Amino acid sequence: MENRVQEIIEQQVLSVAKAVEEKIDDEIAALEKLDLDDIEVLRERRLQQMKKMAEKRSRWVSLGHGDYSEIFSEKDFFSIVKASDRVVCHFYRENWPCKVVDKHLGILAKQHIETRFIKIQAEKSPFLAEKLKIVVLPTIALIKNAKVEDYVVGFDELGGSDDFSTEELEERLGKGEVIFFEGESSLKPSKKPQTRNVRHGSKSNDDSDSE
């Protein structure tokens, strides 16, 4: 009799254990299916992001991004700042300090394809130089959405000498938010100048409007 009771108890325990095991198996299967679905959703989202980025890169390249190029007319300047959301423009003359800037901007242009890097000779662009109040050379204008948002004037913010590194200039441009840069700049912040509208044909005064 006792043996029979023991057998019944063991059968009940096994039955309960089997039911619990089956339930756990079902839950694991459901979780695995959910994980696969999540992975597929993330994969599709990532593919869409990559596609959009590829389209952006293609457009940037078509606009001349990726190269540091010289422009020879003020008309070209206005066309470029209208076409590209972010532009770094070096106002230069034929001297050693400007050649130093050329070297660093040539490197950064290839690293930051999201931004158009150009140079223009200030003395041959008197209207533009006067409108943007370019006095000291070299001056780098940081332009976003066709507006000059900031300037790097001379080397004062880059250690005060011509032996600054490309990384230091990169940090300064990143602080001006004209390139995609996630690093933290150790340079002292400069006073942000008044924003000037540089859209061609604007009827505003020379100092233009600010955002």
From TrEMBL:
A GO cellular component annotation in the UniProt record: cytoplasm
Region of interest called Disordered, as start-end residue ranges on this chain: 184-211
Compositionally biased spans, kind Basic residues: 189-202
CDD domains (UniProt xref): Phd_like_TxnDC9 (cd02989)
GO biological process: microtubule cytoskeleton organization
Domain Thioredoxin: 72-154
Alphabetized InterPro entries for the sequence: Thioredoxin-like_sf, Thioredoxin_domain
Name listed for the protein in its UniProt record: Thioredoxin domain-containing protein
Originating organism: Lactuca sativa (Garden lettuce)
